[in-house]
């Protein structure tokens, strides 16, 4: 690289843009020129001797191959960790909303606590990712968009990495994965699974095809944000009982494919000792179509699922039915299901992990309506100043 040629062309660009006006050189301009010279000199002396320009992403393999993954690995061994700090501090809109919601709920949290809790971690710290993985992701996305002629060429991969500041790095920390990988399920995967089960589903009438799932609510609903004065250090809100804002309850109804909500459902209330106290039992009113249980979390458990099968579902069904449940491990245990329903005409089907948002009936219809109605009731009570216990 000839720095004199670079300087001449730089002068030409500056004269073209700003004209040929002459003036005395200031100290700041001397300083800037020296700094620019040092930058150009460092570029000349470094191994980054090639500069690339591009106008668009290429969709085939007609461009020249650039630096290979193995070469870039050697080039970046001494890469400074601080260079990626700006990447780690970038958050999506959803992540920022989650941070704001958490800070609203913990007004006394210190900056260090917030930073540590929401520290950005790069995917490379979780599992190894290589050019082949980027190629796979790109091809999968192209197939979803029906770009049948798309090829994730070497040029495309290198361009993508430059645009997103991705480089091959040597890892210096290995961690044990505490949670198993969640399976990735697309809409097509979910529909293909349904198609594979149509022969079995066709053996049952619509009133014999059942679905059940859990839906949780807060006893006292409070939005995560409130109108207040800008700049105040602490924003407080008053509720009837602070305990009720986290004190949730869970319902588990049963619906049929012919659009009916069956006559019984499970209600799980949150209690400190995992059971109802004496005073609570005296005052508790249990309707005949509700099976009420208690848990510390207000969520379901192995014991509560056993109660659901035997006390809720058994009285509602005959010998022949088909039950759809999600892939929660406790529900997916066929042994528990067979213990409650030994007749082979009763069948259990488990939705594939990650597919319930696409094909589970209660997720797509019933629970959305419930949450909408829940918010409407809260709004009506507030506007009309209705006392509600």
TrEMBL record:
Name of the protein in its database record: DDE-1 domain-containing protein
Top-level division of the source organism's lineage: Eukaryota
Region feature (Disordered): 65-84
């Amino acid at each position: 690289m000839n720095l004199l040629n670079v300087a001449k062309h730089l002068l030409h660009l500056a004269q073209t843009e700003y004209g040929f006006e002459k003036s005395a050189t200031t100290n700041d301009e001397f300083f800037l020129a020296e700094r620019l010279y040092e930058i150009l000199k460092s570029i000349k002396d470094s191994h980054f001797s090639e500069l690339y320009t591009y106008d668009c992403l290429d969709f085939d393999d007609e461009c020249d191959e650039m630096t290979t993954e193995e070469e870039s690995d050697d080039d970046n061994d001494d890469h400074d960790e601080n260079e990626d700090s700006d990447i780690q501090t970038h958050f999506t809109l959803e992540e920022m909303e989650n941070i704001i919601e958490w800070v609203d709920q913990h007004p006394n949290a210190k900056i260090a606590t917030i930073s540590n809790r929401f520290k950005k971690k790069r995917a490379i710290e979780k599992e190894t990712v290589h050019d082949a993985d980027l190629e796979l992701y790109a091809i999968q996305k192209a197939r979803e968009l029906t770009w049948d002629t798309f090829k994730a060429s070497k040029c495309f991969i290198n361009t993508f990495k430059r645009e997103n500041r991705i480089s091959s790095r040597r890892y210096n920390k290995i961690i044990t994965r505490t949670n198993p990988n969640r399976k990735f399920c697309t809409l097509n995967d979910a529909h293909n699974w349904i198609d594979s089960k149509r022969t079995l589903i066709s053996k049952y009438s619509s009133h014999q095809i059942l679905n059940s799932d859990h839906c949780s609510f807060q006893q006292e609903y409070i939005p995560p944000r409130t109108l207040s004065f800008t700049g105040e250090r602490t924003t407080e809100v008053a509720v009837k009982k602070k305990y009720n804002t986290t004190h949730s309850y869970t319902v588990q109804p049963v619906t049929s494919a012919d659009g009916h909500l069956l006559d019984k459902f499970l209600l799980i209330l949150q209690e400190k000792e995992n059971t109802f106290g004496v005073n609570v039992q005296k005052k508790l009113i249990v309707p005949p179509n509700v099976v009420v249980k208690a848990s510390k979390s207000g969520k379901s458990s192995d014991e509560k699922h056993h109660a659901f099968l035997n006390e809720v579902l058994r009285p509602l069904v005959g010998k022949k039915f088909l039950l759809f449940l999600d892939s929660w491990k406790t529900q997916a245990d066929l042994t528990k299901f067979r213990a409650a329903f030994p007749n082979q005409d009763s069948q259990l089907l488990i939705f594939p992990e990650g597919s319930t948002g696409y094909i589970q009936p209660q997720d797509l219809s019933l629970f959305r309506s419930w949450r909408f109605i829940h918010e409407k009731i809260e709004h009506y009570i507030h506007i009309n100043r209705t006392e509600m216990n």
